[in-house]
Amino acid sequence: MNKDNIAVGLDIGTTKIVAMIGKKNEYGKLEILGVGQSKSLGVHRGVVNNITQTIQSIQQAVTEAENKSGYKINDVVVGIAGQHIRSIQHSDYISRPNPEEVIGDSDIDALIGQVHKLAMLPGEEIIHVLPQEFKIDGQAEIKEPIGMYGGRLESSFHVVVGQAASIRNLGRCIKSAGLELSGLTLEPLASADAVLSQEEKEAGVALIDIGGGTTDLAIFKDGIIRHTAVIPFGGNVITEDIKEGCSIIEKQAELLKTRFGSAWPGENKDNEIVSIPGLRGREPKEISLKNLSKIIHARVVEIIEQVYAEIKLYGHEDPKKKLIAGIVLTGGGAELKHIKQLVEYITGMDTRIGYPNEHLAGDSDEELSSPLYATAVGLVMNSIRNNTKSATPLVELKKEEPVKVRPQVVVEEPIIEEEKEEPKVTQPIKHETTDDKIKRSFFDKYIDKIKEFLDNAE
Fold this sequence. Notes:
It is found in: Cell membrane. The protein is of the alpha+beta class. The protein has 12 helices and 21 strands. α3 (164-176) crosses α12.
């Protein structure tokens, strides 16, 4: 066990920002040392739209994680999502000057470097270049080309593309919060690391991560990433619909959704009512749980149908591309009651809820195994693979040098109402491979490019 390899993941979501510090224990499991969470201000549908508020929210989450863990965070692996993300399939090849030499890392780097020269739309940048299967002199379906002989090396690639401005705004927020950026990962890929098994990836599986602002999709088949997509709707649009449909404030709508909401209207009887406190002495509002479920159901169906359209676009109906392991739901939206049954009904595919507890040490806080934290856990795992020493014990820092205290930021939190003002129910309710080397070498170059841009911008 490398006790110095302290990893940090930073999940900048639309609803919340999570800073998570962890390390691998002697059994190879992830031991979480500290978690900080803050309300995400300044992020809309996965994209930063207010730099100052985002910096404050990041600092708040980071400071809380540092206080809980006793470590000072130096650098972070950050998840990226947002409606500007798109993916393309691309094939490319190189002709090697000397076929008598074995294929090495430099050949793979040269092939990936060639993909980076692809012409993108104005303002777009390549975020990930993920090799799928290699071909050497016409011999197909090679997963590990290093060490083989051949003159023509070709591969199919899954290329993830995003808006350069959005990526740089994210980098600016990280730097201004007093942190270094050690890695950038597409959020559905991080979530997949945390909740999917290798067997599922081999058999074929679609991971659906339902967040606050976006719903992310990652499809795996034969152990290889085949398709990714970001749909610009998430749990927040459901809350917004409840707010409009029931004429209540947003906080009450969120409470209604999480406590009493269901994606399946047939589960609720017509006489099941929930009472909402009125504003400033007004009469309480009575809302039928059946109507509440109808509102939620309509919006969830819309989200799932868009995701299913992406799954069909990948080619799920082709027998060779069939996703045998079905669908795995994760993210905060996966906690909605009866969503699993609704997804199975719409898609006809086997569905389960994905929890990140498989990779967590046995004594971890139960709350951390919630689908809410799947992306954060995946980002910490990504940071561990990069072998970064992302945090330093405060005790060591005290011996060596005075600690630079990160400025405390006071962010206004919504006032929580008294217990008596929460919704009341008036009627009882029933119930290390080539892949890793490629990723690391690519990310080193990519992160250096972002750092150089940020330095020049100052």
